[in-house]
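[Q] Does anyone have a clean structure-token version of this?
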Amino acid sequence: MGVVGAILGLPLAPVRGVIAVAELIQRQVDAELYHPASVRRELEAAGEARAEGEISPEEEAATQQRVLNRLTASPSGPRPDEEKR
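[A] Here you go.
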């Protein structure tokens, strides 16, 4: 059955390849998005933008809250800013 299964599974090989690439991309995105250095850079950028007058204090606070929520969220779970349905 192994040979027959392999032959019948060949048409699905491209789909499996696309799924594997998508999973790899998702892992890379999660690694970058939730990495503490990335979070720190985003918080510093918000602070600099506030110091230069590009954003209001409310916008800076909202950015900080969004970034901190992302940091405390599970990379594979739902995001805290998403509403539960």
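[Q] Thanks! Anything notable?
[A] Confidence is low (pLDDT under 50) at residues 80-85.
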